[in-house]
């Protein structure tokens, strides 16, 4: 089958990892001759890159799929693909549920899309969910932004958090080599990208599967070493990384962030619960005291660092008193941003089978009281920006107010200010902050383009 001028569309659910995978798969499709179609209903190939973290994301996929499966009866050459975590988890089951599907592929297979499609175009229905060594990606991702880019540094996760499907669906840790990561960043710099976020499910695990230890017995390749190694890539002005794990977060890393000017003072370190018993049941491998210690250390080195995290309420067995410890932690630390979620049992995870599930009503109440506190604290924290000059990397026009542009501060706060996007896109601009809302800022205007 010729793929030239055929149209494709990708619908992405879930986390940054999935978004980065989608960009790579789009790059592969374009290399094969496909062209992007904004409207999935016009596309000849539709790929759903799925997520199992929340039940509604999974349900959404099924409802979208149902519609497209019907269309396939009228247009038999329509190619339907489910990729990502639902694909990995459900595998063959998905084909039984939606027999119109052509390809079901787990996240480890994202870079193999072209090979898999070849089999599909030869008339096969393909399920690719077996564990594999991830091949280095040589196609260019079709990146959504022209200013900021994600770069995968480690795939998979070896942790066994009892609520999480990731290890089951994304497989064991596989780090890319420092040289491959740097080469991708050099190319991004040449293309005019200004900011790179290094990505991993547990980025602090970077390098422990790569060969070599140092004389002092530590792994030769760590995230800290990687930051030093890629820091001077020309053109890249800012470096971020996510997601951190408190169990492995080191003072050496904090020092590197302080020392390396391009590494932004923003840390995303999920704590999940403020109670040690709950943390133990989650198998997170740290205590709230250790977590607090990390934040204290960060603030010792970088008092103004912005801190964000993830938290779960209503984990099986969580009592009111234990939930209050989460509130206490949020109260004490004062996060700049917190992603909160009510626990939702995911198939194939240990905690989903436990009998001590918390009722939906209690979860709802806890979530709303946590969210209320988060907004209060974020509104308090944000005041420190008022009247200050912040460096903003301009990414786009404000879609709601076209006389304004928007971008992020080094602390990752969304900031709007008057300006012309044609002139400012991709520029680092000093902005004087005149309004500070809980999760975003507005500036008076450009004080000077760097
Ligand atoms: S560290 Fe835990 S929560 Fe994060 S991806 Fe691994 S198992 Fe899931």
User: What's the story with the biggest beta sheet?
Assistant: 6 strands, parallel
Query: From the helix content, strand content and strand pairing, which structural class follows?
Result: alpha/beta
**Uncertain stretches:** none
The largest sheet has its strands arranged as 2-1-3-4-5-6
User: What distance lies between the first and last C-alpha atoms, to the nearest angstrom?
Assistant: 51 Å
Family: Belongs to the methylthiotransferase family. MiaB subfamily.
Binding site for [4Fe-4S] cluster 1: 15, 51, 85
Function: Catalyzes the methylthiolation of N6-(dimethylallyl)adenosine (i(6)A), leading to the formation of 2-methylthio-N6-(dimethylallyl)adenosine (ms(2)i(6)A) at position 37 in tRNAs that read codons beginning with uridine.
Catalytic activity: N(6)-dimethylallyladenosine(37) in tRNA + (sulfur carrier)-SH + AH2 + 2 S-adenosyl-L-methionine = 2-methylsulfanyl-N(6)-dimethylallyladenosine(37) in tRNA + (sulfur carrier)-H + 5'-deoxyadenosine + L-methionine + A + S-adenosyl-L-homocysteine + 2 H(+)
